[in-house]
Recover the amino acids of this structure.
């Protein structure tokens, strides 16, 4: 994927999520849906928003790698191609609320921690690749 396309798409998704968070699910449902907030619309929007949450760290990391060498970007992108769909599947499969003490995870914490882990692992990957390429260019 092109650097510019990833940056623009993830930036638009992140902006929409931030605006959507400010406006709120009930206001969006009242504006777009005939039944408004009386139906399942707010709950469906919550699920959609949780699944799109990884786009915020994706945008920040695409912004970081935009001016870096293409090899650093490609290394990080290979990781992102695996992590983002995997985290979206995990968020989708996580229950809305913890059902009992044996399943202490829910949709919100899964979305938060998958995004946090994605950001931390990505920063480490980008840093390692960037500094290894920098050392190699100094030697040769």
């Amino acid at each position: 994927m092109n650097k510019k396309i990833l940056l623009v798409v993830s930036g638009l998704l992140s902006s929409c999520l931030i605006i959507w968070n400010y406006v709120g699910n009930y206001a969006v449902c009242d504006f777009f849906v005939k039944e408004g907030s009386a139906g399942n619309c707010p709950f469906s929007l919550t699920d959609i928003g949780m699944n799109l949450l990884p786009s915020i760290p994706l945008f920040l990391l695409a912004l970081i790698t935009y001016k870096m060498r293409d090899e650093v970007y490609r290394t990080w992108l290979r990781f992102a191609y695996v992590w983002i769909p995997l985290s979206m599947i995990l968020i989708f499969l996580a229950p809305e609320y913890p059902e009992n003490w044996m399943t202490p995870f829910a949709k919100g914490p899964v979305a938060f921690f998958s995004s946090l882990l994605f950001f931390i692992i990505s920063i480490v990957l980008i840093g390692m690749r960037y500094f290894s390429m920098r050392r190699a260019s100094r030697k040769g």
In short: The chain has a mean pLDDT of 88. DSSP finds six helices and no strands in the chain.
